[in-house]
């Protein structure tokens, strides 16, 4: 799979920009705050319909403007596809493939697949549960496009349910009408929630098998990586050992928990259980890597996860994703950097950002296409002379 061209209007600090990505290995060079990550964010948005850093879509629009456009020419299975996204809040975003409007996210997703590996990913284990949920949700949406819709449905019903719980004003003696309303929302939330937990467990089981081996290879040791989906609602799922829980089993558990938590939820005026509270845990030789592993060990876990994401996409979709490496190489030590670069296939389109080209050897640069990014523009064509940068 290739991203052949990207065109932006009013996206972050880009007023208007069109850039072609010929070849498999692209390097984006620029000083801090010039727009390197913004370019990758646009690519990530095309692949997941969400940003890895914006809280909402309006943040993506250039300050002072009302809309933004993200367009791309991609090729998948050798077929050229034009993708277009118009973000114009408060209207719904418009999604088009080859000029035809798509009414659902799932009809749009899956045409560009990417694996994004940035400096902030290296902090995945140290980050918050919401960072880990975002990683997981983005990764799953690409390989199972229907997942994104389920997640949106879940979030919509949760908001309605929170509003209803707030309306009760802490009074646990519900009228029969209130009880009926709550029951309807409980049922809808349980169905959406159990589907989400089912797919998260399925994905983590697949990642576990791949990441376990990679982790051993990178760490050059017998360290055993085990991933756990941690849920106060449905219980922990140990991806290495447990069978993937069926949606029907999870549904029962949701319903039980809603009963158990009803008084607390009314008192707090919010939904306190469900996948929006869940987390992913990582164990190395049976110990929690978040609290015990060194920074280097944590980086090894993230590197193993990212390389596994690539393999999993290749296995499910039978196409290599586009790999985005945002400033990450400079943060890895020589051994991990070498492992990463060796693991990337020649045919995998890889887009790398860096602030300093001097970190790369002439030999490495020889077959790369290099662009300079400066104040929201991609400077004139390809620049392959170090001196010019
Ligand atoms: N909505 C927006 N409108 C206009 N400018 C924006 C918007 N959002 C972010 N920016 C600006 O975009 C600039 C470039 O951001 P970006 O994160 O892409 O930089 P970068 O080249 O990746 O830098 P670094 O090397 O520090 O990671 C920042 O100065 C930021 O203030
Ligand atoms: Mg950046």
Short description:
The chain has 389 residues and is of the alpha+beta class.
Structural account:
Helices cover 41% and strands 22% of the residues. By secondary structure, the chain is an alpha+beta fold. The chain has two domains: 1-112 and 320-389, Rossmann fold (3-Layer(aba) Sandwich), CATH 3.40.50.300; 122-318, RecF/RecN/SMC, N-terminal domain (Glutathione S-transferase Yfyf (Class Pi), Chain A, domain 2, Up-down Bundle). Strands 2-1-4-5-6-7 form a six-stranded antiparallel beta sheet. β1 (2-11) and β2 (14-20) form a beta hairpin. α3 (129-143) packs across α4 and α4 (146-167) crosses α5. The relative contact order is 0.16. The mean pLDDT is 94. It binds adenosine-5'-triphosphate (ATP) and magnesium ion. Magnesium ion is lined by residues 36-37, 326-327.
């Amino acid at each position: 799979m290739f991203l052949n061209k990207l065109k932006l209007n009013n996206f972050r600090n880009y007023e208007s920009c069109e850039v072609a990505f010929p070849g498999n290995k692209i390097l984006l060079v620029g000083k801090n705050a010039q727009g390197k990550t913004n370019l990758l964010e646009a690519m990530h948005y095309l692949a997941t319909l969400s940003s890895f850093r914006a809280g909402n879509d309006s943040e993506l629009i250039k300050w002072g403007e009302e809309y933004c456009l993200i367009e791309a020419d991609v090729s998948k299975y050798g077929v050229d596809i034009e993708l277009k996204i118009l973000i114009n809040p408060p209207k719904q975003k418009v999604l088009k493939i080859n000029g035809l409007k798509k009414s659902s996210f799932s009809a749009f997703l899956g045409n560009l697949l990417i694996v994004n590996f940035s400096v902030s990913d290296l902090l995945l284990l140290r980050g918050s549960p919401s960072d880990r949920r975002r990683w997981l949700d983005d990764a799953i949406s690409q390989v199972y496009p229907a997942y994104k819709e389920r997640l949106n449905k879940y979030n919509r019903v949760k908001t309605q349910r929170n509003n209803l719980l707030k309306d009760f004003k802490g009074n646990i003696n519900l009228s029969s009408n209130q009880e009926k309303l709550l029951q309807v929302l409980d049922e809808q939330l349980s169905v959406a929630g159990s589907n989400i937990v089912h797919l998260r467990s399925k994905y983590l089981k697949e990642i576990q098998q791949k990441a376990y081996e990679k982790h051993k290879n990178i760490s050059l040791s017998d360290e055993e990586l085990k991933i756990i989906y941690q849920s106060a609602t449905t219980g922990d799922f140990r991806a290495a050992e447990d069978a993937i829980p069926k949606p029907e089993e999870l549904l029962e558990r949701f319903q039980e928990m809603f009963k158990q938590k009803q008084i607390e939820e009314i008192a707090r005026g919010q939904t306190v259980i469900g996948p929006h509270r869940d987390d992913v845990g990582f164990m190395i030789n049976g110990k929690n890597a978040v609290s015990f592993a060194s920074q280097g060990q944590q980086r090894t876990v993230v590197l193993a996860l990212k390389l596994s994401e690539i393999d999993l996409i290749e296995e499910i979709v039978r196409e290599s994703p586009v790999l985005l490496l945002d400033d990450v190489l400079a943060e890895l030590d020589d051994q991990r950097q070498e492992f990463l670069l060796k693991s990337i296939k020649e045919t995998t389109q890889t887009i790398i950002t860096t602030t300093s080209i001097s970190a790369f050897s002439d030999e490495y640069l020889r077959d790369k296409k290099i662009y300079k990014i400066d104040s929201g523009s991609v400077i004139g064509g390809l620049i392959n002379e170090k001196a010019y940068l």
